[in-house]
Amino acid sequence: MIDRRYIGHALAPFSVPVEASRLRFFAKAIGQTEAIYSDEAAAREAGHPGMQVPPTFLFCLEMDAPNPAAVRELLGLDYRRLLHGEQHFVYYAPAHAGDVLRFEQRIEDIYDKKGGALEFVVRRTKVSNQHGALVAELRSVTVMRNG
Questions:
Q1: What's the whole-number mean pLDDT along residues 33-51?
Q2: Do 108 and 139 form a contact (C-beta atoms < 8 A)?
Q3: Average pLDDT for residues 125-132, to the nearest whole number?
Q4: Of 3.40.50.1100, 3.90.190.20, 3.10.129.10, 3.20.20.70, which CATH number belongs to 14-145?
Q5: What is the distance between the alpha carbons of residues 2 and 123, in angstroms, rounded to a whole number?
Q6: In what order do the strands lie in the sheet with 14-17?
Q7: Average pLDDT, stretch 119-131?
């Protein structure tokens, strides 16, 4: 069983610069054709300070953590039995190329279902920009299959 004493545990915060070239690549990869996500001039014409971060890209930036496996290692999770169960985003403000985003991750909950056959780890991440403004909250659920 995953040790529930880690509920509420906060990981070390980290910051990631939002690079225009990565935004262009991501927009192309997901088939995003709206120019504010891939063209600096179009984004500025639309009133943005730079290209806007596409929806779900924050998940990619979160993987730039100094140790993307920190939660798995902390909890002793066997990656061979893990599933990505859910990803949820709540946006408060747009982020743009040139921003430096700060990620603050916390283990929000640990619980099980089916008599312990499935265990769930809920991680919430607050994302703020270089001005301290809250940009988004990410909620991720990891499922560990037991037995």
A1: 95
A2: yes
A3: 98
A4: 3.10.129.10
A5: 14
A6: 14-17, 100-113, 118-128, 134-145, 82-91
A7: 98
